[in-house]
Amino acid sequence: MSTSTLAWQRTNDSAELRRVTIERRSLRADDIAVRVAFCGVCHSDLHAIHGATPHMSDDGGLVPGHEFTGTVTAVGAAVTGFAVGDSVAVGTLVDSCGECAMCRIGQENFCHLGPVSTYGGKDRVDGAVTKGGYSREYVLREQFAYRLPEALDPAAAAPLMCAGITMWEPLQAAGIGRGSRVAIAGLGGLGHLGVKLAVALGAEVTVLSRTGDKADDALALGADGLLLTTDDRQMQIARGRFDFILDTISADHDLSPLLRLLGLDGTLSVVGNPLLTGPRILELTAGRKKLTSSGTGGTKGTAAMLAFCAEHHITADIEILPSKRVNEALTRLEDGDVRYRFVLDMSDLGDREA
């Protein structure tokens, strides 16, 4: 039978989230039930709340949240990888076709039939719209849950499941390692994890920012320095300096200045705002440069990212708020008032609705 649980939901076309009771489906054979402990607040949650993600399904009751940790409370009859009491992490995807070329290599994020997102997706079995981790209980296929390494704090690890993997996949695809010259454009919820991961991979890392107010933070995170993109002289001196730039900026911006910072065969990976209009092709021609993007990650990459983060003690820099302050968190996120990721403590929703 289905389970009632409390959640924070957008209703009546309002951007304000309200506490409501929702239903979670009965466990299927390969499902696990998770009591959500901590859920990160992602900038894409803001996009969804404001209706800027037309690819998402909406039944009029959006429940955001796609990076969370918690404890397994029940398992389906065919589940073999988890037991009640296990600590787990869940990310942006909860299902895929499992049969296409992308799914077979562990890149379910690029499933040819479309992966099922943690919220705003359509369940492959019953067609119901998925509701996210701004809730006390969640039900999903065991294949898309990950055992949370003991070395990682559950609250600070939650953002790894979206922000972390969004940084990890393009860094891995570019072969970043010792000797690589990497720049991270934007030092926010994504960018600060990009710095940590690139540094741990052995790269020389520079933060690109419009202002210098985060210079100390950049150094504390392990970066070698901060380059002011508003300083024409600094930008001219740095022309052709980098092998790889990871663009995490969520606002609209011109890509051409970033491309000019790349050396021969350099790559600019845009992950902060994939809706941006691309540069003139000539900007790519000069130096055989490449413009790429990436969307979260599949099961193979996510498992590898978690293991790497556990080995190198990498988690997000977070501010924890009780979930009842979710609207405050969203407002402050929109204003850029967080360093560097909000995480909601879901325990104030109670253990379960009757």
TrEMBL record:
Pfam families: ADH_N (PF08240), ADH_zinc_N (PF00107). Signal peptide: none annotated. Keywords: Metal-binding, Oxidoreductase, Zinc. InterPro entries: ADH-like_C, ADH-like_N, ADH_Zn_CS, CAD-like, ER, GroES-like_sf, NAD(P)-bd_dom_sf. Residues 10-344 form the Enoyl reductase (ER) domain. Its EC number is 1.1.1.2. One of its GO terms (molecular function) is alcohol dehydrogenase (NADP+) activity. It catalyses: a primary alcohol + NADP(+) = an aldehyde + NADPH + H(+). It is an enzyme of class 1 (oxidoreductase). SMART domains: PKS_ER. Its cofactor is Zn(2+). Belongs to the zinc-containing alcohol dehydrogenase family. This is alcohol dehydrogenase (NADP(+)).
